[in-house]
Amino acid sequence: MWISKEGDVRKREFLDAALEIFYEKGYEKTTINDILAKVGVTKGSFYYYFKSKEDIFKELALQQAERIVSIVESICAGMETGAVEKFNSIIHEIYEIKIENISSAIKSNKMMTSEENSLLSGKIIENVMGRAKPLYTGLIKQGVDEGVFDTVYLEESAEMYIYLVNRLKESIMRMLVSNESKPMGFEDIGRNVLFYEDLINKMLGTKKARIDLSEPVLRYINTIK
Asked: What is the DSSP letter of 207?
């Protein structure tokens, strides 16, 4: 039986249900009827908020991206510190949230690294790229002006940075779940993190202070393990 609820509450139920089913079955195999059964409502209620399965998919991708972008915006605008400190604060904040919500973070990461949900993962990165790239471009310019970065490729470096940190996240999760009976050792994962950290610092031409991926990422891995 359908029970009337406030619009935002009902819409949130649809989004939560869709995300959970996408995790279990993958986007392509999920149907609107699956989502309706999970929420316990009729199609009329679904179509009041969303035009299609693709519509709910796009909103989920946008919301996932917004969580990351809001952190970048807040730190870029709110901290009176150097560029390297801002980069490190963004990384630490993102992974601190993951640690505080470790169960949902693991579930979300597994979902995003599965073949069935590559479309959703790609859409999230597309949204992050569109919103965060100008912010990171400005941050890299700040670092160049401060003399802590040495690159003339501001926009290109910002785009590559977003790609690399996402690639690192996917790489780590695949290493953890690719063979759960024989999981990768901590040293193997640590080496992988250091590789990406070194790559990013070389790309930006960091001097003295470095962008630190190792501490927050390995602390997150320790929490998982």
From this structure: -
Check whether domain 1-51 has CATH 1.10.10.60, yes or no? yes
Yes or no: say if 156 and 133 are a contact pair by the CB < 8 Å rule: no
Nearest to 154, CA basis, from 142, 140, 143: 140
Distance between CA 52 and CA 58 in Å, rounded? 10
* Interval 187-215: pLDDT, tens: 778 888 999 999 999 999 998 889 999 99
* Alpha carbon distance 7, 41 (integer Å): 14
Look up residue 146 and give its two tokens: 């401060």
Instruction: Give per-residue pLDDT as tens, 100-113.
Output: 877 666 666 666 56
Fold of 58-223: Tetracycline Repressor; domain 2 (1.10.357)
* Reported pTM: 0.77
